[in-house]
TrEMBL record, chain B:
Pfam families: KBP_C. It comes from Lonchura striata. The keyword Cell membrane does not apply. This is KIF-binding protein. The lineage of its organism: Eukaryota, Metazoa, Chordata, Craniata, Vertebrata. Activator of KIF1B plus-end-directed microtubule motor activity. Required for organization of axonal microtubules, and axonal outgrowth and maintenance during peripheral and central nervous system development.
Length: 343, 593
């Protein structure tokens, strides 16, 4: 018996940001490439036929942060307190409102909610809780700790009880929601500092903010420890991924360095994947992001993707590809590994 | 020629353009990514203006020089994302060269122009067009090597002073490299076109040429060859798979050696990963041994999965007849390396067979090789830090024992092999946190259950040979059955939701395992031995419940039927038979009272 990674279907949400130029709003739909039809459908004004997309939830330009939170993230955040792992991804092109959504809805409200629940649980009987967080950035397949700007090049490891972790990443113990938010903003600032000092753009890196909630329960001398993770992931701008992944049939060229025909390995890997049903070992690992998240995503984990789009007609192409991606994600049953490869 | 711009000045400009394009452009700021490329382009245009037939050599030489410039301009335009302009220049280059394309002056340039046209068309998503350019480059190389074969001029030499010209050795090196690139691009083309076999063949040839022309990093090369072996495994080409692995191991051992002076500036990129790469190659070897054994098993088993002695004799006779013949022909085509390397590779190959093992002795030899690689792989992939990898290796180890047991005729010894599997899997399962490793936990639950089940079956078979079942055997059978039931139930429990409710409808990927678990539990309750009739009735009742689950489920969800056809048929039979047997037993019990 060989099972694939399975679990609940991924919930997919779409959020439309207001255009930066408010004036276009005054003349109706003019200048916009889409309209929100209902709380789960969206119409893209494509030619010759408009295209209708259906998602689990669509937030229009007027939707507040609070209501995005309660329809999208609340469920995941709450089940985290019940021992589920949860992951919220923000996806979309640079400027589509990913960071706005993620920082506020995912993190700020998320943390606050964790804390509201935390206090409720804490007050209840028998259990004691510990809340910790870490904040890392994956850029160019390297891991940086945003809570320790001096560190560089951290490694991923696995623990038989605790799953995948970033070896050496700072874990900050939290005592209040305000403190958590403080940690987050510090990390965010580090991300900006790094992006100027090392010429790495934030739109090219993934940021992963992780809250770990550990509960300890004493049951007749037996101590029961449970921990669950809430991962808040700000993915790199989708337009950047296009350069590298969705380029279709392009050939990879031989490297500048004399000997390196560096993608030969990937070509071979692609050949091996076809031979299914047979036992084989592939020498090329998943990407860091996939590896970090794979165990918290498989099985008893809850996942959602918030696809952010900019409604301006200039962004038509990107918006279409974001909506297409989100549509595909909806069809995939939490095979997140596959999904991220696709991404 | 214009005043003041003699030939040396032209050459100097050309050289400057190449430096700008290849070296300076790497340092361009992100805001002006093509700055140096544009400067190079301007220089190349100047050189083009300065060229005239007045120089020595006449029309033919001029045409080739123009072609070189068109080539450089073509590459420059495609580098700066101006594909149409790039295409025009490259086309002009090939037109100029067309009449002389087989001459040593032009052949290399022509091939490189075709390579670049191939890349260009792939950027336009027209892979078939790319294919025609690359295949014609390939054909030209072959024709040239057949008809002439002398080291041809490198394109850069057309703008060099006589005293700077390259040695034959260097010329040949560069020419062969251009052709290696053709093959490397073709490998990608065929992969994109789903011509998998051809793609594999071109990957293989690319690897082979990297070795021949010393253009490789040992670790990277070894990793690629080891990966290619896994492709051959999926095609059951064990000879080729073994050759790739042997070569991977041999080349890997070169890693970290002091590079020759010429290459001193090019150290291998990932030296610090050596132990990990070594572990990975070992894991490819494990899969090799495992697949060879499993394929042999498939050939040898009868319809109930036991070793078929007639088939065994037949295959042994057949093997004697065809021995080597076919293999030798195939082998020539894929052999890696030149004399020295080749000898080491062949020596490495001798350590394990590439033909199907047909009896226990042969199977054991393959098994032992696999087991050695298990130890080697575990040296790096330790459970602390590499949980998933480590467990996968242990699972392979268990699978090696499982397939070896097939070849073992003695039931007691076979049972011991399965016990070894239990001993390696059970402790890992006990430690593993299902919250993070649910998938692996389920795999282990099922595998442990199946192993206990198999051991129980073996003990029953052993017991059947005895005149009377002794109490020790009975106890053993019952305890094995209980363990099997325990792990099947653990697996089924893992499917429950947090409120402990079993799903109404099973997900596609767990459907078959869950149904088989139910079916096996039903059978296991049927096998439990007891002298207590009341207990026996209870067991039969439980058994009936599990069989009924299968039948009812398939009635409710008919699309589940194809996944478990055989089990369903047997379950239906049992659902019909069991109540009768239970009735008879009840009658017997009450008649005693």
């Amino acid at each position: 018996h060989l099972f694939s990674v399975e679990g609940d279907a991924i919930k997919v949400f779409v959020r439309v940001r207001p255009p930066s130029d408010r004036t276009v709003l005054t003349d109706g739909d003019h200048g916009l490439c889409l309209s929100v039809l209902s709380s789960n459908t969206i119409r893209l004004h494509s030619k010759p036929e408009p295209k209708i997309f259906t998602f689990d939830y669509v937030a229009n330009m007027e939707t507040t942060q609070e209501s995005v939170f309660s329809s999208v993230a609340k469920n995941i955040v709450e089940s985290c307190m019940n021992g589920y792992n949860g992951t919220i991804f923000a996806y979309g092109q640079t400027g589509s409102g990913k960071t706005f959504t993620m920082m506020d809805v995912g993190c700020h409200l998320g943390i606050r909610n964790v804390y509201v629940n935390y206090c409720v649980f804490q007050a209840g009987s028998g259990k004691s809780f510990l809340c910790k967080c870490s904040f890392i950035e994956i850029y160019n397949e390297q891991i940086f700790d945003l809570l320790d700007s001096a560190s560089a090049g951290l490694f991923l490891r696995e623990h038989i009880k605790k799953g995948v972790f970033v070896d050496g990443a700072v874990e900050q113990v939290l005592s209040s929601a305000a403190e958590a938010y403080q940690v987050l903003t510090t990390g965010w600032r580090n991300r900006r500092v790094a992006s100027t000092s090392m010429n790495r753009e934030s739109s090219r890196s993934h940021a992963v903010f992780t809250i770990t909630v550990e509960s300890m329960e004493k049951n007749n001398e037996v101590v029961n420890i449970r921990s669950s993770l809430l991962n808040l992931v700000d993915l790199a701008g989708s337009e950047r991924q296009k350069d590298t992944h969705t380029e279709g049939l392009r050939l990879k060229e031989a490297g500048n360095i004399n000997r390196s025909l560096s993608c030969l390995g990937q070509v071979i890997t692609a050949l091996v994947d076809v031979g299914n049903g047979k036992q084989r070992h592939i020498c090329y690992r998943d990407s860091k992001l996939t590896f970090l998240l794979r165990d918290s995503l498989g099985g008893n984990a809850k996942t959602c993707i918030i696809a952010n789009v900019h409604p301006g007609s200039k962004c038509f192409g990107e918006t279409l590809s974001t909506l297409n991606f989100a549509q595909r994600a909806k069809l995939i049953k939490n095979k997140v590994r596959k999904l991220l490869c696709l991404y | 020629m214009a005043a003041g711009a003699g030939w040396p000045a032209v050459c100097e400009k050309f050289r400057a353009a190449r430096t700008l394009s290849a070296v300076e452009s790497l340092k361009d700021p992100e805001t002006e990514p093509y700055r140096s490329k544009y400067s190079a382009r301007a220089l190349l245009q100047e050189v083009k203006q300065l060229l005239s037939a007045a120089e020595e050599g006449g029309e033919a030489v001029l045409a080739v020089r123009r072609a070189v410039l068109e080539y450089e301009l073509g590459v420059n335009h495609t580098d700066t994302e101006e594909l149409s302009a790039g295409e025009e220049h490259l086309q002009r280059c090939t037109q100029l060269l067309e009449p002389h394309r087989l001459s040593p002056d032009c052949v290399s340039l022509y091939i490189q122009a075709q390579n670049n046209l191939g890349i260009l068309w792939s950027q336009r998503d027209e892979i078939e067009t790319a294919q025609t350019y690359l295949e014609s480059a390939e054909a030209l190389y072959n024709q040239y090597m057949k008809e002439d074969g002398n080291p041809p001029l490198d394109p850069s030499e057309h703008f060099m002073a006589e005293e700077e010209k390259l040695t034959d050795q260097e010329r040949s090196k560069r020419f062969e490299k251009a052709y290696t690139h053709t093959l490397y691009y073709l490998a990608q083309v065929y992969q994109h076109l789903d011509m998998i076999e051809k793609a594999a063949q071109y990957c293989h040839t690319t690897l082979k040429r990297q070795l021949e022309y010393c253009g490789y990093y040992p670790v990277e090369w070894a990793r690629n060859a080891a990966t290619l072996s896994q492709y051959y495994l999926s095609k059951e080409c064990f000879m080729e798979a073994r050759h790739c692995l042997a070569a991977a191991s041999v080349i890997f051992s070169q890693a970290g050696q002091v590079p020759s002076a010429e290459d001193a500036d090019e150290t291998e990129p990932d030296q610090q990963d050596l132990p990990e790469r070594k572990g990975e190659i070992a894991r490819c070897w494990i899969k090799y041994c495992l697949n060879l054994l499993q394929s042999a098993r498939k050939l040898l088993e009868d319809n109930i999965g036991e070793l078929d002695p007639d088939r065994q004799l037949e295959l042994k006779a057949q093997r004697k007849k065809e021995e080597d013949e076919k293999e030798k022909g195939r082998k020539k085509a894929v052999l890696f390396g030149t004399s020295d390397i080749c000898d080491s590779v062949l020596a490495m190959e001798e350590k394990v067979s590439s033909v199907y093992p047909l009896d226990f002795q042969e199977a054991r030899e393959v098994f032992l090789v696999g087991q050695n690689y298990v130890q080697e792989a575990k040296e790096f992939f330790q459970v602390d830090g590499y949980v998933t990898d480590h467990i996968e290796i242990v699972q392979d180890h268990s699978a090696l024992f499982k397939v070896l047991a097939f070849f073992e005729e003695d039931y007691e010894r076979r049972c011991k092999m399965h016990k070894r599997r239990i001993d390696m899997l059970e402790p890992i399962y006990a430690d593993l946190n299902p919250q993070y490793y649910l998938l692996i936990c389920r795999q282990l639950q099922c595998e442990l259950a199946d192993t206990y089940y198999e051991m129980m079956d073996l003990k029953v078979a052993i017991g059947n040979r005895l005149e009377k079942l002794d109490s020790h055997t009975v106890k053993k059978i019952n305890s094995l059955a209980q363990f099997a039931i325990k792990y099947y139930e653990l697996f089924l429990d893992s499917l429950r939701n947090p409120d402990k409710v079993f799903p109404e409808k099973l997900e596609e990927d767990v459907l078959r395992p869950a149904m088989v678990a139910k079916f096996h539990i039903a059978r296991l309750y049927g096998k439990l031995i007891t002298s207590d009739s009341k207990k026996q009735l209870e067991n039969m009742q439980t058994s009936l419940e599990y069989y009924t689950f299968l039948v009812d489920y398939c009635e409710k969800y008919p699309d589940a039927v194809p996944a478990i056809e055989t089990e369903l048929e047997l379950s239906k039979e049992m659902v019909n038979l069991l109540p009768g047997s239970m009735e008879r037993l009840r009658a017997k019990v009450s008649s005693f009272v």
